[in-house]
Design brief:
Shape: globular
Radius of gyration: 28 Å
Distance between the termini: 47 Å
Strand order of the largest sheet: 3-2-1-4-5-6-7
Number of helices: 27
Largest sheet: 7 strands, parallel
Structural class: alpha/beta
Length: 639
């Protein structure tokens, strides 16, 4: 989310009268700022203000320099003194609001911006600032209104169109967001950031080719942010049915060779090489929050043997929530790395003498793969959070299971594969609704369902699901995802299914809900359909926990074998199809057998409870053995 962001220290353009030597001190402070001597400039501005307390210009410049030095509270005092003396000086409100936002005091910043608008109701810069502050408080409708007002005065401002697009996308108004991004690009075609966000919006609507084209153009336009943009591109390739596992692997390797950071040679690690001593394990993630990763890392953090393993969590979490608080209690040490660059974060990890550093993000949003490139720990591994290789040369291991990575899969990973015996362990939500009877028993019609994100619903998926609906007369398909809050996205999917002879009356398109209501919606589904080539993950676990059987298609690489692995672990391999034709047959067969549907509905939760999929103690013990093995390997093979 861009706004008129804090800039390098700028000198105020206000020009009040000076008298005596105060003007000389002010001029000296200005010269010291130009030379980068900020501490000296503070002294000069304060001396100027002792002589001329009404020198608004020096108050503003003092606030700017103090802010640059990180002395935020002092900067706030300086800006407030300007406002007290000159309530109509909008620039002081602007700077004060930015400092308050830096301190995560959005409510105060909003009040400051509202005061500025009382002085100048249509000031576009203040409207943009207020919109940004409201956005950060998740008040998206109010933020959108501010940006629209700012555009009335500045319709040709590409940055405001961009900000409007960000807010619209966050709200879920994807059609309007795309229009705003396109207008921003018309005004500023060279904005890599706008093109990157446009690609993200296309991806959310399942427009994969458009997303890929935008990502590639963003990489060309913005080489400084190309590593992050290319990560977005890699993530999107997992969804694309036309890309082979080998081609996707080559793109990941290309990222590692071309875009991954290349830090200078690091000193050797001084970690003690005792194979059986207590190990320090570090987990790095942007998803220690209300996110699907939390369902899988919480059992591990809960069950770790504290006597043999000391746990550190490195959190790239800008907006902590209740889940963050819960996870924080499970780690011996919690380190926020928000605001630290890769080198700073790596230095902090190295100072903690971490033995094994574990990535939980891969190429997903907020990842810190650049930290791993600095090799702050002697052993580094990629685990849950991303279903593919990282391509990063400094990543030693990829932790997998035999279901998703059978023999031969190693050719698609730059890391060495190490195996756990089962798919990731899952912590069901504490307040899950009870399991009901199959809704078809009451309604007389079968409802299929998929609650995955729309990027997974590629044209081959829609074609196959249309065949399932045609094979089961009267059946319906419920699709649930946040973008369906947008009418344009609903129209788009109605058209995609209509092309295969499925009318809108057979589709139930629902938007997002809080977790409990989302889970309750599984009570309206008889059979879940797993997408491909990128299978469902958390949604598959949720469906099964809610008693809904899942029909999957067994694929060739890790992203397309997730559903098969989960079903096989539960002893339900018969629900995993080998071919698309088998997929239709299995789904139609289940739909025609209400007795089996009822039996599965009644038994799946207990089956999950009795399986490795929810046995956190057994799963974590296996993980700890794996850690001990790879640590022992480092002790033996590293000089």
């Amino acid at each position: 989310q861009q706004s008129a962001e804090s800039r390098p220290v700028e000198l105020s353009m206000v020009s009040p009268d000076f008298s005596g030597h105060g003007a000389a001190y002010a001029a000296t402070g200005n010269a010291q700022v130009v030379q980068g001597r900020f501490e000296d400039a503070v002294v000069s501005y304060r001396r100027a203000l002792e002589i001329n307390p009404g020198d608004i210009k020096s108050f503003v410049n003092l606030g700017n320099v103090l802010s640059e030095l990180g002395r935020k509270e002092e900067a706030i005092t300086a800006y407030r003194q300007v406002i007290d003396r000159n309530p109509g000086f909008v620039g002081a409100y602007h700077n004060l609001g930015h400092v308050l936002l830096d301190l995560d005091r959005a409510a105060e910043a909003i009040e400051v911006y509202r005061r500025a608008l009382r002085a100048d109701p249509d000031h576009p810069m203040v409207l943009v600032d207020l919109g940004a502050a409201l956005y950060h408080q998740n008040k998206h409708d109010e933020a959108i209104a501010c940006y629209r007002r700012a555009l009335e005065a500045n319709p040709g401002d590409a940055e405001i169109h961009y900000n409007l697009g960000v807010a619209l996308a966050k709200k879920g108004a994807l059609d309007e967001a795309i229009a705003s991004y396109r207008e921003a690009l018309r005004l500023n075609p060279d904005s890599a950031e706008t093109r990157d966000n446009l690609a993200n919006t296309y991806l959310r609507r399942g427009e994969l080719d458009e997303a890929l084209a935008c990502y590639r153009e963003a990489c060309r336009l913005g080489p400084k942010r190309a590593a992050a943009t290319y990560s977005n591109l890699l993530f999107s390739l997992n969804y694309h049915p036309a890309w082979t596992p080998q081609a996707i692997f080559e793109e990941h390797r290309h990222w590692g060779e071309t875009y991954a950071p290349r830090p200078e040679k690091q000193p050797a690690h001084g970690n003690s090489r005792e194979p059986e001593r207590r190990l320090r394990i570090g987990y790095v993630s942007a998803d220690f929050r209300e996110h699907s990763v939390a369902f899988f890392i919480e059992p591990v953090l809960t069950q770790h043997d504290r006597e043999r393993f000391e746990i550190y969590c490195y959190a790239q979490v800008a907006a902590p929530d209740a889940v963050t608080g819960r996870l924080k209690q499970l780690a011996a040490h919690w380190r926020s790395i928000v605001g630290l660059d890769d080198r700073q974060a790596a230095d902090r990890i190295r100072a903690d003498e971490i033995d094994i550093l574990v990535d939980l993000s891969g190429h997903t949003a907020g990842n810190r793969l650049g930290v791993f490139a600095h090799r702050p720990a002697p052993v580094q591994a990629s685990f849950i959070g991303y279903p593919n290789t990282t391509g990063l040369p400094a990543m030693d291991y990829r932790i997998v299971n035999p279901w998703i990575a059978p023999p031969g899969s190693e050719v698609y990973f730059t890391e060495k594969l190490v195996y756990l015996p089962s798919p990731p362990c899952f912590r069901p939500a504490a307040d899950c609704p009870p399991v009901n009877v199959p809704p078809a028993l009451d309604s007389g019609r079968v409802t299929f369902g998929c609650f995955n994100n729309l990027a997974k619903l590629a044209p081959p998926v829609i074609a196959l699901w249309a065949a399932v609906l045609q094979a089961v007369p009267g059946s319906r398909l419920m699709l649930k995802s946040q973008p369906f809050n947008d009418a344009g996205t609903r129209d788009l999917f109605h058209a995609r299914f209509a092309a295969h002879g499925v009318g809108p009356e057979r589709l139930l398109l629902r938007g997002s809900d809080p977790l409990r209501e989302y889970l309750r919606c599984f009570n309206d589904v008889d059979i879940a359909l797993d997408p491909f080539p990128y299978n469902g993950g958390t949604t598959t676990y949720h469906a099964l926990w809610m008693g809904v059987p899942v029909v999957a298609l067994e694929g060739r690489n890790s992203v397309s074998r997730i559903g098969y692995g989960v079903l096989a672990t539960l002893g339900l391999k018969e629900l995993a199809a080998k071919t698309p034709a088998d997929y239709v047959t299995i789904a139609a067969g289940l739909a025609a057998d209400p007795g089996r549907l009822q039996a599965l509905r009644a038994s799946l939760r207990e089956r999950m409870r009795a399986s490795p999929l929810t046995d956190g103690k057994r799963y974590t013990a296996a993980l700890e053995k794996l850690y001990r093995d790879i640590w022992g390997n480092w002790c033996v093979n590293t000089k």
